[in-house]
Amino acid sequence: MPFFPRDSRLPLTPVASLALALSLSACGGGEEPAQASAPSEESAEDTAAEDGPADQLSQEELAGLLVEKPVPSSRPRMDESALPPEPGDSAPLPERVAWLLLAEVSRKASHAAPGSAAVCPERMEEAAGRSYTCTLTYGGLDMRFPALAEDGDGGVTFRFEYPELPTVRAVVEDTIRFDHGVEAVYCDMDDVVAVTPGEDRAPYLCYAAGGGGASAEDPAITPYEVYVLIGGTLATYPYLNEG
To answer: Cβ–Cβ contacts within 10 Å for residue 18, how many?
Structure first.
């Protein structure tokens, strides 16, 4: 059952607020923007694809693209240990907000992409009503996210808006395996694709052997469409609108 995750908020206690104010007032103008970087990991295994759109290939050609893996026991979920350590209360405000953005987008994508980093403006203030734009580099994509300062319990909180979110091919393929009980799957997409959540289906199709209405006698390769819901949850369905 799809669910919609909570808003991403960063509470600042009065004690932390004072420390942050002192830290910001002492900063010079020539420092680099605060960053939150993911630790180095091995790159995901690439799946070789034929030139041209997969929907123009024959069943035999598609069969050559499928990657067979066991059906996972649950939907993909991010390994929290793959994130960099969360900055402490005494860390500068831009660094704390940048880490929160990196963590929340990685959770929505169900994957901590190696080398990802978030950057927020140096001169952020904990004043309700202020808005900023933070930049996240994730899987080779640069994405911009508005960060809005609001009054919250015990201090100011930051709420992000998500005009786009990344989807990761390995995550989408394992989601199809889990949702539909199939093992051999291929998604006709780059390793990471930015998608607007809550809109029409994602700009790619996936394929699986033996899914949908296929039978043991006719294990046809079934196309699947993917939707990114508000909050980042994936919804996958057999593609029924073929021409």
So the answer is: 11
Cα–Cα nearest to 188, from 42, 61, 43: 61
Confidence of residue 241 (pLDDT cuts 50, 70, 90): low
Nearest alpha-carbon partner for 182 in 229, 217, 242, 223: 223
Read off the pTM: 0.74
Rounded Cα–Cα distance for residues 226 and 34 (Å): 35
Residue 92: strand pairing partners: none
Helix (H) or strand (E) holding 59: helix 59-63
CB 132 within 8 A of CB 120: yes
Return the percentage of the chain with pLDDT > 70, whole number.
Answer: 72
CB distance 226 to 239 below 8 Å: no
In angstroms, the CA 100 to CA 229 distance is: 21
Confidence of residue 3 (pLDDT cuts 50, 70, 90): very low
pLDDT for 214 equals 47
**Nearest alpha carbon to residue 172 among 215, 140, 208:** 208
- Strand 184-187 and strand 67-68: the pairing is antiparallel
State the virtual CA torsion across 104, 108, 112, 114 in degrees, nearest 10. Answer: -100
